[in-house]
Amino acid sequence: MINIAKPVIGEEEIKAVSDVLKSGILAQGEKVREFEKNFAKYIGVKYGIATSSGTTALQTALMGYDIKEGDEVITTSFTFAATANSILSVNAKPVFVDIHEDNFNINPDLIQEKITKKTKAIIAVSLFGLMPDMDKISEICKNNNLILIEDAAQAHGAEFKQRKAGSFGAGCFSFYPTKNMTTSEGGLITTNDEQFAEKCRMIINHGSKTRYYHEIFGLNFRMTNIAGAIGIEQLKKLDFFNNKRIENANYLIKNLKDSNIVLPKVKEGYKHVFHQFTILTENRDEVLKKLLDNGIKGDIFYPKPVFEQPIYKKLGYDGKEFKVVNELCKKVLSLPVHPSLTRDELDYIIKILKEIT
After folding, report:
1. Which positions of the chain have pLDDT values less than 50?
2. What is the pLDDT of residue 240?
3. DSSP 113
C-alpha cells in the first residue's frame, strides 16, 4: 500500500529521545527551549512558545489576546475542526467566510462584509501547505484594528512573497506525525510581540511564571522535552522534506496535466510546501475506491465544511451561502506526496489515475 503520509524518523531522532530518557528530564526543559529558539529563527521571528499540540497553540494564542465571550473571530469555512473549535473553547463565536476556488483558502475579498463591532480577530489558515493572500488579509486587519492569527498547522516553511508562514501574525503550528515535520504530538506559537509571548508562556504553565504562584488563568499546555528533542532534529531536515514534497508534486503535475482532474495551482510569489497534494475530480468517492483497490491510499480533506459538523449545526450554523466550499467539498481528493515516495511509486500513481479518471 502506498500511504497518504509517512513520518520520516532517523537515527538522529532516536538518539535524541534516548538521550532525554537517560537524562531523566522528561517534561518541559532545555530541549524545548532550544527547539523554540531554533524554530523562531527559522520562521524569522523573535519568540517561539512550544505547546502540547497545534490545537492548544491556537487556544493559547486566543487566550493570550484576551479573546472571550461576546467576541467574534473570522476564519475559513474549509479547515480542520480544531481551527473553529479553538474559538469555541474561549467562548467566542466563529464567523465563517467562503474560500477561493484556486487555492482552497479563505477568500479575502469576502472578509470585510463579515466584520462587525464584535469582530476581534481573523484566523488565516494556510491549507494543504499553501498560504492565502497575506497582503490583503494583513491590510484588512490593519484597517479594522483586528488581531491576526495564522493557523499554519499545515504550512511549515511555506512562504508568501519570501516571508514564511507564521511571520505575519501570531503563527500557530502543529507537529502531528502527518505534518511536514513532527515532534510526535506538539505545537508552537511564533511572534515578535514580547508581552504576548510572555503571557502565552504563563497560560501554558498554569498561569504561572514562578512555581506555585498563579497570576492568571492557565492550563498545562506544555511540550515535553522528548518532543522538543525530536523537533530539534526534524527542523534540521525540514527544508529537505519540503523540497522532496515540492519535487514530487511537480512531477505529478507535469505527468497529470492532460488528465481529467483539476491539479493544484501555485501562483507567483507563493511557496507551496504540499502538506497535501489535493486535486478536484468528478465521481470522487468512486475514484478514491479505485485507488484503494489498486494499493494507493488517497484521502479526503475535508468531506464536510466545519459548519456542516453536527456540533455547529446544533449551534445554528447554516452554510448555504458558501457556494464554493459546498461545491469543492464534493470533489476534493488528496494523493500521496510525502518525501518517502519513490519515482516508481509516483509513476504507478500517475498510471492508475489516468486509467480511472
Report:
1. none
2. 98
3. G
Query: Within a 10 A sphere around the Cβ of 53, how many other Cβ atoms?
Result: 21
Note down the domain range covering 160. Answer: 11-97+104-233
Contact (Cβ atoms closer than 8 angstroms) between residue 75 and residue 95: yes
How far is residue 316's CA from residue 287's CA, in Å, rounded to a whole number? 33
CATH number at residue 287: 3.90.1150.10
pLDDT, position 305: 97
What are the phi and psi torsion angles at 33 (to 5°)?
-60, -40
Kindly state whether residues 311 and 190 are assigned to the same domain: no
Angle between helices 30-43 and 225-256 (to 10 degrees): 30
Under 8 Å CB-to-CB from 318, ≥6 apart: which residues? Answer: 307
Per the DSSP assignment, residues forming a β-bridge with 173 are 188
Q: Indicate whether 156 and 244 sit together in one domain.
A: no
- Is the pTM here over 0.70, yes or no? yes
Looking at residue 133, its pLDDT comes to: 98
132 and 57 assigned to the same domain: yes
- Nearest to 298, CA basis, from 332, 265, 325: 332
The domain that contains 88 carries what CATH number?
A: 3.40.640.10
User: What is residue 46's predicted lDDT score, i.e. its pLDDT?
Assistant: 98
Bridge partners, residue 137, by sequence: none
Q: Do the strands 213-214 and 270-271 form a parallel or antiparallel pair, or are they unpaired?
A: unpaired
Please tell me whether residues 316 and 187 are part of one structural domain: no
Which residues fall within 8 angstroms of residue 354, CB to CB, at 6 or more apart? 256, 259
CA pair distance 152, 166, nearest whole angstrom:
6
Per DSSP, 99 falls in state B
